[in-house]
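Researcher: Here's the sequence for the chain we discussed earlier.
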Amino acid sequence: MKKSTILILIILAVLVVDQWLKFYIKTTFQYGHGFDIMGLSWAKIHFVENEGMAFGITFGGSTGKLFLSLFRIIMVGFLAYMINKLMKEGESMGLLISFALIIAGAIGNIIDSVFYGVIFSESGYTLPTAVFMPEGGGYAPMLFGKVVDMFYFPMIDTILPDWVPFWGGESFRFFKPVFNVADSAISIGVVSILIFHRKFFKGEAKETKPDAAALSATAVASETSHQEEE
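Model: Thanks. This is the structure I predict for it:
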């Protein structure tokens, strides 16, 4: 199977799982609702939405939201160019897969930002479950949709001891951000590059084997040099 085919299948698989789960969560649960995964109190499905970056980070209001949506689209184009360039240069499959995961995650969140405001009704704590393709139209114009998040892992939920500087006596929760499949794909891709493919950032040139002609020329030059010395 060609490398390009494998990468396309990986991207499609991530997108299908990401969008199916988002659609299910959005149309099944009210905002802020969910359930414990396998009965675990620290592993939850918890439906929330965000207007910003991965893990619920936001900035800049409506202007920032528009900028982020456009930036994501541009970045996907750049990453597609990069992965095509890397394939032509014969880079390792591990690096290519890492970039494919980042592309898939970016596209997954782009779909939310671009289309979800148009195709879904509003979700809220006091609102009923969202409706797909509502008669009155969606809750926001194109490019202003909210990203659906659902994975929540508050593995530590405690009160910090009084002796802890600055935060003593305050509540502490880890891991607080709520995220989705697309966020996970991006994170896995980035971490994989940083850990296993650091040479990509160093711009190290690949080692190339000398061809037969070069080897022959070197041998002839060496032999001639020995004869002259004699």
